[in-house]
Amino acid sequence: MLSSVIAKRLVTAMCQTAWRPAATGLVPSRCYRGDAPDDVKTDLIEIPLPPWQEKPGEPTDIKRRRLLYESRKRGMLENCILLSLFAKRYLNTMSDTQLQQYDRLINEPSNDWDIYYWATEAQPTPDVYQGEVMDMLKEFTKNRNQEQRLDAPSLEYLEKEG
What we know:
Layout: H1 4-24, E1 31-32, E2 47-48, H2 60-72, H3 77-90, H4 96-107, H5 112-119, H6 132-141, H7 155-161
Antiparallel strand pairs: 1-2
Helix pairs in contact: 2-3, 2-4
């Protein structure tokens, strides 16, 4: 019987052989890596994601509703709370340019941790995402009024608050 360490290495090697060539060649510029600070990267599998595309001609009210939903339904709880409360406060007053910046910010990066680190200023924001909306999000993240931000509001609540 194989030990668990040997079995894990065997499964990891098979997954890398089976998946890596197919996944890395499809979308080299946009994929989810699942990086972790202590990851030794021996089990890294890149999952290709479709490229983000702006939706020209999308009606503003539809865009606001879509962004409201996407702000609430994130890949990690920290961003669910942060972005949904940010959307509650600012989304209905954003200009078309600000909506476009916000759309790009929350939908183009493939890793939610990147957005979180930029908003909390733990890492520098890339130039492509730096702008008025990112400045608003960074200021919002500082929580100068010391509001309780323990949970994301429901979608119905957000829409009524508009």
